[in-house]
Write a structure and sequence with these properties.
Molybdopterin biosynthesis moea protein, domain 2, 4 domains, homodimer, Molybdenum Cofactor Biosythetic Enzyme, Chain A, six-stranded mixed β-sheet
């Protein structure tokens, strides 16, 4: 057996996929990956502006609380100001540009006015209530780096720089091929010995959520010729091929022979539970990842192994996940493999789903994350453990 | 000022939106909300099946390690077995159905065979290596509840029950209206006193990520007639209206008067930072939420206030977020408001972005989450604080 870390190292060091760049509307960019740094061509804010509704003046001109200043202009957000007449104040609103000559804004709660003049109780130091030009972002600053996956706030940030179209990496295309004579699609009647194909739904949703384009090749019969045709087509049309089932050491597995004849395959026994058998190779130059047919094993290996590999292929710079630490509410003996226990977190700690058999897909829907239990490490109630909420895999 | 909790309580208790049910393909259901419980009409697995590649037999028939059993049938996954002939073994593969009469599977590593007969070194107790029928899900069990937002593994689970179409709640339709004469859309040239409209991009992405349908009404001029027309149209076409800007107490804010004339508006001063001014009401019967124009304030109030309200409207049953606990790597005095500090988490603890001014949108893109600092509570380096990674808001 090889460790999870070693398997990941082998997978990720072999990555040779490079996706093209395309230019898209910022509005369509959620979850897309930047192909180039975002460099600001503007200052944000573009000019000094008021943080308050109030009055702008020059500190030196303040005559004290008992004397009035004439209100010489009125500046709303979006209206360009004129230079401030010496010895006067400007009525000003939040976000409005500070007029040349003013160096402080007094909030209106500290003022009295008769509409023509203003009496100011107290002023702050020079610069008070003024948001300086370039405070948020300076002209020329790198705001986001190439390889960053865009979130809502990143899109807001880019918009605030005046940028409406951006260069991103083309979505990675991923093929899903389900193998197994026993599989039948949901919506049909399952005969004796048949089970429903759940991996296809599970994997397609995971891959789409990660921002990839998915080509689903359905269920392929356990026939070498058919598997070979489907694999060849997938290698021409996609950037990576994922299969489920068909890569254990059983006699009925034809995937291995086919991949060998079209490229190269390594069968790994990874010290991961659930999920031990894992195949890696290439089909006519396209990376090939063979997951176990068992849905829980397919789910866990997709999160732990497939995700970082495909994110590398997609050009994502930070695909690694840092587990959280939480108190275990259960005891669990360690095993020879690194276990991904399906769990649920609460304010008191993390509890385990009682049935951890890899056949029980319900263990993944019951909870909200997984505890990572290292090989040979026992977990005792009350100890701190590593937890990965499923949302961290988004 | 009212507390964040009180504001949330008022918002959420006033919710009257009910969305219809629609039936969709399971494949399109990622992020959708179940309109009804998912009840299993099948057992998963549908029959006892083998957890291993090996040999199925009746424990009683085992003749000991030195005597062979005849191999009377060969059962692959997907092939219905025939009843096991007494005193024989069946060759069986992982996932294949156990033949009537057999009560144990021996893994092939514990067997020798000449192709016709099998010698078995040792057997396990009755039931060994057999995954019992209904182990994952029993017929009639509720697998997922109405109000659940579907994740990839939930879709796999539903597929495993043979269900291909499901009843979900129609996507909530949300209107976004940006107000402010100073706003200009990205891609255009910003004149003096103008700033780019970032809220539209930020909010649209957040709302779409939450599974809502977004109708964007663009930037509305600071003109009561125009605002009124846009609001009326939005109330006819959507389930909820969100505005940014125009609800502070400044003289230039027309939104308040318009909403008052078309329905009802409350202006709240919420003890939240960033984000104090918040408007809530209705426009011709449609809920109205008025966010601050400042992008950081809009972002924080969208996550903290808008998200739970809209998830309630959408029928999501579990919209609440449980913060994580992490060590603070910074000192920060408390204030009169509950602060949402923009932070970044590492393995040593959580660090703060130095510039917490609400004008600095970059504070939200720099990091990966927020520390919640309660009103009046000081944070000292080394103490435990509540952290909400942004991904938890997904």
């Amino acid at each position: 057996m090889i460790s999870v870390d070693e398997a990941l190292e082998r997978l990720r060091s072999s990555n040779r996929v490079l996706v093209d760049t395309e230019t898209i509307d910022l509005r369509d960019s959620l979850g897309r990956v930047l192909a180039a740094d975002i460099v600001s061509a503007v200052n944000v804010p573009p000019a000094d502006n008021s943080a308050m509704d109030g009055y702008a003046l020059r500190c030196e001109d303040w005559p004290g609380p008992d004397h009035a200043l004439e209100i010489s202009q009125r500046i709303t957000a979006g209206t360009p100001p004129v230079p401030l007449q010496q010895g006067t104040a400007a009525r000003i609103f939040t976000g409005a540009e500070i007029p040349p000559g003013a160096d402080v804004v007094v909030m209106q709660e500290n003022c009295k006015t008769d509409g023509r003049c203003v009496w100011i109780n107290a002023i702050r130091e020079v610069g008070g209530n003024i948001r300086p030009k370039g405070q948020d972002v300076r002209h020329g600053a790198i705001v986001l780096n190439a390889g960053h996956r865009l979130r809502a706030q990143d899109m807001g940030m880019i918009a605030s720089l005046g940028i409406a179209r951006i260069a991103v990496l083309r979505r990675l295309k991923v093929a899903i091929i389900s193998t197994g004579e026993e599989l039948v699609e949901p919506g049909n009647k399952a005969g004796p010995g048949q089970i429903y194909n759940s991996n296809r739904y599970l994997l397609e949703a995971l891959l789409k959520n990660w921002g990839f384009e998915v080509m689903d090749f359905g269920i392929t019969a356990d026939d070498p010729k058919i598997i070979s045709d489907v694999m060849s087509e997938a290698s021409r049309k996609t950037d990576a091929i994922i299969t489920t089932g068909g890569v254990s050491v059983g006699e009925e597995d034809h995937v291995k022979a086919v991949v060998e004849s079209l490229g190269r395959i390594e069968l790994w026994r990874v010290a991961i539970k659930p999920g031990k058998p894992f195949a890696f190779g290439e089909v006519l130059g396209t990376p090939f990842l063979g997951l176990p047919g068992n849905p829980v094993s397919a789910f866990v290996t997709a999160l732990v192994m497939v995700r970082p590999f495909l994110f590398d292929c997609q050009g994502v710079s930070h695909a690694d996940i840092v587990p959280l630490r939480q108190i275990a509410l259960f005891d669990k003996k360690g095993s020879a493999r690194q276990e991904y226990l399906r769990t649920r977190s609460g304010s008191n700690g993390v509890e385990i789903f009682e049935q951890q058999s890899s056949g029980v897909l319900y263990s993944t829907t019951w909870g909200d994350g997984m505890v990572v239990q290292r090989a040979g490490e026992d977990i005792t109630k009350g100890s701190m453990v590593d937890v990965i909420p499923y949302v961290l895999f988004n």
